[in-house]
């Protein structure tokens, strides 16, 4: 039995366990219910030991003791049945398709009102079952994130296993990360470090300039706020191949949060932080000090930018001397800058000067 088959079997068992739990509640004369961690910001805590966001101890109960609660449990039961059948047939579907599929269910009360409702239910099932949605064969509509660098992998696909070199066997666009990166086996590599890049334009600049080749870098395009698949692959690259991970973003508070989601996890996926987050990841720019040192083209901070920066000064993810100094400097100068602002010093400046100097300072190269 392959690892994928074993994972599918475990996912099916967990789903059936949930259905059996509801059945036993009926037999025992109990009102059917499902307990899950309270999914609110007030129940998210930063675990100092693991350095990631996790759920606290507060619980919420989805119970059939009200019409509204009964509807939620009914939708959960129908979804459990659908997911178990999907695994049995070795099929997959998108989160969007699940929302539309409910229109065909024979019980009108089981239909979802909108996709946000079905998305949240899938997250609930992840939490109570301890199984990731990827192992339910559920995927988002698209991720689009790509990888370029000296890494050879084997990917399990529905059409058989494929060996791929993430430079030699792909075009300039790179290797697209699958929805479930756990289907990837790392075979061989000459990678010295991972460079996660926020924007597509900067990723293309690095590849066009041959940065991945010259520095044995694995360039991972984050595509803005990174998808779960991207964060999972990044964590595996660090944990299994012992590769340093760096995160290269714009110089604004929202980009710092992108770094935070890679390194410490996000509130939305707190139940999966230890599966997705890479606390050892290091931030490589654009720093507020770079704006001053290189006199980069800038935009003024908006009121929402200022509020976000002030919030980050209280955020446990940014509680160290480096971040305090940089954020206070940014509030002082009142400016923000994009990665592409480095082009004001020439198209090769980022690959010939900026990144090599920063990586050398950090001891990565």
UniProtKB/TrEMBL annotation:
Q: What is its EC number?
A: 5.6.2.2
Annotated ranges, domain Topoisomerase 6 subunit A/Spo11 TOPRIM = 193-359
UniProt domain Type II DNA topoisomerase VI subunit A all-beta: residue ranges: 141-190
Q: Which GO terms describe its biological process?
A: DNA replication; DNA topological change
Which Pfam families does the record cross-reference, listed alphabetically?
TOP6A-Spo11_Toprim (PF21180), Topo_VI_alpha (PF20768), TP6A_N (PF04406)
Catalytic residues of the enzyme: 100
Q: What highest taxon heads this organism's lineage?
A: Archaea
- Alphabetically list the UniProt keywords: ATP-binding, DNA-binding, Isomerase, Magnesium, Metal-binding, Nucleotide-binding, Topoisomerase
EC class, as a word, reads isomerase
Task: List, alphabetically, the CDD domains matched.
Answer: TOPRIM_TopoIIB_SPO (cd00223)
Decide whether keyword 4Fe-4S is in the record.
Answer: no
One GO CC term, this protein: chromosome
Please list the residue ranges annotated as the Spo11/DNA topoisomerase VI subunit A N-terminal domain.
Answer: 71-137
The record's similarity note reads:
Belongs to the TOP6A family.
Name of the protein this chain belongs to: Type 2 DNA topoisomerase 6 subunit A
Taxonomy of origin reads: Archaea, Methanobacteriati, Methanobacteriota, Stenosarchaea group, Halobacteria
